[in-house]
Design a protein that fits this description.
By secondary structure, this protein is mostly helical. It is 73% helix and 0% strand. Among the domains are: 80 residues, NADH-ubiquinone/plastoquinone oxidoreductase chain 6, subunit NuoJ (Four Helix Bundle (Hemerythrin (Met), subunit A), Up-down Bundle); 36 residues.
């Protein structure tokens, strides 16, 4: 248990440092990389509490897909770093309020867990042979199967909408006309120009 607690505090400290790096990094690319590190540390914490499926999903979905998309968007956009840094002081009150709310919620959860453990009802202890992935799949595909299917359809519609928006015709956008390229003739591609021989001109 001591080694388990040491790992928890190490991962938590790195997670807090990565979160601060996301906030205070001047370069947007560096902020995205700090966020990737924060996701990895969160996955490690979920592994400590035996939530293997959530940890793997966090790494595969957020780090492997969403954050790569964010990184491409940030690198392609022309972001004014100096102008973006000026907005921190404008919303410091809202930021402090949200941070205070999160700290309050964490304190309440820690106190509730401590009282439950003191009463001999520690809900963090799992039975031997318990599988988090199996339990999540059993609930997802039995009680919430319709909600799961509806969410899948909504995501499919979002993907189709995004593809449709990117494939629409815009002024100045160069697109390939496959039928015109296939139907082109050799005479349209090559033009033969007759020129006088340079050797005869030099001899004369």
């Amino acid at each position: 248990m001591l080694f388990h607690a040491i790992l928890f505090y190490v991962f938590a400290a790195v997670l807090v440092g990565a979160a601060l790096g996301v906030i205070f990094a001047r370069n947007p690319v560096h902020a995205v990389m700090f966020l990737v590190l924060a996701f990895f540390q969160s996955a490690m914490l979920w592994l400590l509490i035996e939530a293997e499926f959530l940890a793997i999903v966090l790494v595969l979905v957020y780090v492997g897909a969403v954050m790569v998309l964010f990184l491409f968007v940030v690198m392609m956009l022309d972001i004014n770093i100096e102008r973006g840094g000026q907005g921190y002081t404008r919303y410091w009150q809202l930021g402090l309020a949200i941070a205070g709310l999160m700290v309050f919620e964490l304190i309440q959860i820690i106190m509730a867990r401590g009282s439950a453990a003191g009463a001999g009802n520690d809900f963090s202890v799992l039975a031997e042979g318990y599988s988090n992935t199996k339990a999540l799949g059993a609930v997802l595909y039995t009680e919430h199967v319709y909600a799961f299917e509806i969410a899948a359809v909504i995501l499919l519609l979002a993907i189709i909408s995004a593809i449709t928006l990117t494939m629409r015709k815009r002024p100045g956008l160069k697109q390939q006309d496959i039928s015109a390229q296939v139907a082109v003739k050799a005479s349209d591609r090559i033009r033969i120009v007759k020129m006088a021989s340079e050797g005869k001109e030099t001899e004369s």
